[in-house]
Design a protein that fits this description.
Blueprint (H helix, E strand, L loop, with lengths): L1 H23 L4 E2 L5 E2 L6 E6 L2 E7 L3 H7 L4 E8 L3 E5 L18 E5 L4 E5 L12 E6 L12 E8 L4
Antiparallel strand pairs: 1-2, 3-4, 3-10, 4-9, 5-6, 5-10, 6-8, 7-8, 7-9
Amino acid sequence: MCKNLLLALGAAALAVSATAFAVQDQPLYENSSRQKVQKQQSDRLRISFRNTQFEARLHDNPTTRQFLTRLPMTISMDDIGNKEKYASLAGGLPVDSPLINHNAPGQLVYWPTGPGIAIYYKTDGKPVRGGIVVMAEIETGIEKLQTADSSAITFELIRPID
């Protein structure tokens, strides 16, 4: 009996491992052209407005994957509190990731309470009501976003040349 139970548990663990491996081989998202696209470790997000561009490192979570299905996207983002650019996001995104209640400069986040997306260029240290999901992080030049008025901001996935 005990031996059979151990064999059954071992088989179940193997099946779960095989399923997890198969899921990793799934495409990250289906883009707006309905093409299945496999995520590459070096995929990055380009965020641009007027003559300024940033590159951001993507976070791999269900919210980010769903956001990528909407790209490329150009939206008007308003300045909120002299710390972030914000835009409502019709239809929202799934939130299958833990929400955090703090932000940092350079983060592109989804705020499910809105629902909307925000890019933080400053922080005031106050907790974010309702929590956020971090989708990407801009690593340099984020201070340039502070001087942008309510302008059209474009998001697009970029890939390195192989």
